[in-house]
Amino acid sequence: MTTHSFQSNSNDSAPQTRLAYLLPICLVATFGGLLFGFDTGVISGAIEPLTAKFALSDFMKGWASGCVLIGCALGVLVVGPLSDRYGRKLAMFLAALMFFVSSVGTSLPNDIITFIIFRFLGGIGIGIASITTPMYIAEISPGNIRGRLVAVNQIAIVSGLALVYFVNYGIAIKGPQWAGVTPPSAALTRLNLARLTPTMLDSERGTFTLPVGSDQDVKCGMNGSLGVLADATQMKPTAAALATIDAVSATQCKASIPESALARVDWDAFHTSGGAYPQAVVRVLAPAEAWNIHHGWRWMFAAGILPSMIFALMLLAIPESPRWLIEKHQDDKARRILAKVAGEPFAAAECAAIREALAGEQGSWRELFSPRLAVPLGLGVALAILQQITGINVFMYFGTTIFNNLSSKTGIDAGMLNQAIIGGSGVIFTAIAIATIDKWGRKPLMFVGSAGMFVSLVAMGVMAQQIKDPASAASLMLACIILYIACFGLSVGPVVWVILSEIYPTAIRGRALGLATFCLWIADYIVTQTFPIMDKNAFLVANFNHAFPFYVYAFFCLVLFGVMFLVPETKGRTLEQIEKFWSKK
Questions:
Q1: Order of strands, sheet of 218-221, starting from the edge strand that comes earlier in the sequence
Q2: Which residue of 143, 212, 330, 521 sits 20 to 30 Å from the alpha carbon of 304, by its own alpha carbon?
Q3: Which of 215-219, 240-244, 319-323 is the most confident on average?
Q4: What is the pLDDT of residue 293?
Q5: Contact status, residue 278 vs residue 241, Cβ threshold 8 Å
Q6: Within this chain, do residues 341 and 377 fall inside the same structural domain, yes or no?
Q7: Helix-, strand-, coil-residue percentages of the chain, each rounded to 5
Q8: Which helix (H) or strand (E) holds 465?
């Protein structure tokens, strides 16, 4: 068996790590991170067809996207006690099961409530995987390469995000061809709804019927009955018809599109002030778009079924965490695993150190909140929250909108290209972090990354606030966004997960990681909900021209920079050495 050694920067000699045994185990575990990214990102390509299919209001559209984050928060609360009592391996298997159930359930529903329930279950799986995978890798890896192996999980996450962008693109573009749908060019027609007679208006059903030159009608309104579009006859309204139209809101007029629909209605200029009559855009659906509304989004979610099954099967082949086994008095099993990882001397030393560390631990919530663990607990929670409130998911969830505002290109091709830029930048710089984290250390990467994020966010804010024509500075703004994503991928993204997996004692590591990650997902949800509010607030727009959110996230980058002065460097230290450091403190 091939043996490789890595130079440790600690005073202890580096163990002779057997990568041929250790790497496959860690790669199986990181498959959970891949599904983490896949299930998180799949909504980006599916949300618009989903919205059209179920006629979602703005609130329900946000909830369909954000409910997964609440599921994540619940998942991390559940997994702490579960993994501490039943083991890390069982917890990862539960995550695989949740991924499978969610992928099946979200691909089949005929109503939005059922979709949200299964999407929420997928969030629980993401929450479990977000803790268990880095914790498992940290507990089975020698200290001199632990940072790199834990950081591989982050590259698996961003790879899952990048992968699902291309899967969504393939389904949206190629799916109609596979289904035998030939997409013609779409037509766009504006019809003035003010040109209605009383006989054309069904107030009780909230339906407007526009007569056409054939035997079929175009109907638009709350009943969602749509036919084949043709040239509409121009007619003049009565005062009663105009008043009824004005009383119907745009949200009320959105309705579920039936399978047979070949057209959809997008309402705009829904007002009567200044003599302007209400209008609706009646757009002929290309058959390819109709296929995506009715079927494409289902295949996007169903694409997660096979990888979740593969993950569950692969978990059967890997061992349990040796540190958890020693905690459960299964020392012989733990020693055999550690011997395969880095030899008998390493196994003997590690087992002794783990037993010594566990001797004074109870593994309870009371111990987690004890004064001796107050500093690592506080720092872990702070790092978890700051990872999110520095704004990364604004670019992950709203990146397409931001990019499209800077570009003259529109449509699905431009949106997918922008997502690929985001995902590709994250993958490349996370790979750099993996290569350097055990050489340069955790703190230098975090200092460089948070400073770079601060500079790029301030630059974006200044450009948004000072430049009246954003298109004139589109290239520079794009460069700042890529710089921000690169700095996050280089530091805050992977390194925070490494630190969280290292700084807690073995007996309460599951609970501590659960609490910190719970705070992380709640922070993610808050950022996701508050960005549109800040971005559209009239006062903030008048005074900052959409720059205010960038300044907020830049401020928290400074806070993160300051917090890192309080975090000890854990490069090259064993988990037990880190624990002793906190005891001395």
A1: 201-202, 207-210, 218-221
A2: 521
A3: 319-323
A4: 80
A5: no
A6: no
A7: 70, 5, 25
A8: helix 442-466
Find the range with the poorest average confidence among 95-109, 191-205, 211-225, 337-351. Answer: 211-225
Q: Tell me the Cα Rg of the chain.
A: 27
H/E stretch holding 218 reads strand 218-221
Taking each continuous run of H as one helix and of E as one strand, the counts in the chain are 24, 6
Give mean pLDDT, residues 232-255.
Answer: 35
How many other CB atoms are found less than 10 A from the CB of residue 192?
Answer: 17
Instruction: Tell which wins on pLDDT, 18 or 95.
Output: 95
Judge whether 120 and 70 are in contact, CB under 8 Å. Answer: yes
**CA 500 from centroid of its chain's CA atoms:** 19
- Copy the structure tokens of residue 226: 């749509």
Indicate if 409 and 479 belong to the same structural domain. yes
- What are 125-158's pLDDT values in tens digits? 999 998 899 889 988 988 778 878 887 887 888 8
Residues forming a β-bridge with 219: 209
Secondary element (H or E) of residue 499: helix 493-502
Question: What angle in degrees, to the nearest 10, is found between the helix axes of 58-86 and 112-140?
Answer: 40
Based on the fold, state whether residues 131 and 208 are members of the same structural domain: no
**Does the pTM of the predicted model rise above 0.85?**
no
State whether 550 and 579 are in the same domain: yes
Q: How far apart are CA 197 and CA 212, in angstroms?
A: 14
**Inside any domain, residue 304:** yes
Residues 306 and 350 in one domain: no
CA–CA dist 415, 418 (Å, integer): 5
Same structural domain, 398 and 473 = yes
For the chain, the distance separating the N- and C-terminal CA atoms, rounded to the nearest angstrom, is 42
Q: Where are the alpha helices (DSSP H) in 204-304?
A: 239-247, 287-291, 297-302
Sheet containing 279-284: order of strands? 188-192, 279-284, 263-268
**Which residues are CB-neighbours of 78 under 8 A, at least 6 positions away?**
124, 127, 128, 514
Let me know whether 219 and 273 are in one domain. yes
* Whole-number pLDDT of residue 131: 84
User: Residue 249 belongs to what domain range?
Assistant: 188-285
Report the chain's mean pLDDT, rounded to a whole number.
74
Do 164 and 265 fall within a single domain? no
Would residue 404 count as lying in a domain? yes
Question: Tokens for 357?
Answer: 């560390």
